[in-house]
UniProtKB/TrEMBL annotation:
<dbReference type="InterPro" id="IPR015797">
    <property type="entry name" value="NUDIX_hydrolase-like_dom_sf"/>
</dbReference>
<dbReference type="GO" id="GO:0046872">
    <property type="term" value="F:metal ion binding"/>
</dbReference>
<keyword id="KW-0464">Manganese</keyword>
<dbReference type="InterPro" id="IPR039121">
    <property type="entry name" value="NUDT19"/>
</dbReference>
<dbReference type="GO" id="GO:0016818">
    <property type="term" value="F:hydrolase activity, acting on acid anhydrides, in phosphorus-containing anhydrides"/>
</dbReference>
<keyword id="KW-0479">Metal-binding</keyword>
<keyword id="KW-0378">Hydrolase</keyword>
<dbReference type="InterPro" id="IPR000086">
    <property type="entry name" value="NUDIX_hydrolase_dom"/>
</dbReference>
<keyword id="KW-0460">Magnesium</keyword>
<protein>
    <recommendedName>
        <fullName>Nudix hydrolase domain-containing protein</fullName>
    </recommendedName>
</protein>
<feature type="domain" description="Nudix hydrolase">
    <location>
        <begin position="31"/>
        <end position="234"/>
    </location>
</feature>
Amino acid sequence: MGVPKVEQIVLPDGLTGRARDVLEGRAEPVPARDAATVVVLRERAPGGMQLYLLRRSASMAFAAGAHVFPGGAVDPRDADREVAWAGPSPAWWADALRCDEPTARGLVCAAVRETFEESGVLLAGPRPDAVVADTAEWEEDRLALIGRELSFAEFLARRGLVLRTDLLRPWSRWITPRVESRRYDTRFFVAALPPGQRTRDVGGEADRVAWMRPADALAAAERGEITLMPPTRRTIAEIAAYPEVGKVLAAERTVVTVAPEVVRGEDGVYRLLVPEPAGDGVREGRA
């Protein structure tokens, strides 16, 4: 499925008022909050690679009803230096994500924390070379993390775990258009479902979860059966180009920023312009 150089999407009527106010200077853009999201992948026979999607509840203020990957905003405590860390260093991640080390530390921790909160998948282990087999018995901790009663560093320390940053790969960066009332500066990561772990329908912000082949998710969106926001759809299309999970994880990505903008055309219609980054963000794969 080809992606145009600049994709144009007509803005829904409900968003045009805010867009008009921002573009005409009557409202100020809100700052974009740092956020992280993770594409969790698994190999499944027959059928091949699948990815994990959640459908956001219709009551949610942001992206209601859309199918998304696990993720969310960075908690200030995610940058806590007390987080036990194994794998590529914060300095390595700062270079990969093109940000400073505290921001990189917070983004990586948020990626792992949010994935655990929203899917039950935990990229951590008792040793730097091990990963937990299952997390079903840690439901109380998961709920405490969601309620911000427990920090991620405290959770890891309580369970004697280290963060496995080597199980994550950087993928891309998307910034919410400046006309939106809720804005995020989101780094996308990919990860494989660890052996022995299973996702659970954990509820909360989502009312449905599903494992889908990338091609099937894109086809369902084309038929109008599911809603995919532009960053989700573009990411799925990129991953669909790979035949298996190992190839996705082996892709050396140059993280490029995609910042869609809303413009008012000569016909008076407001459109979201989604640019395709220069190049495809891919470097030579790992040996």
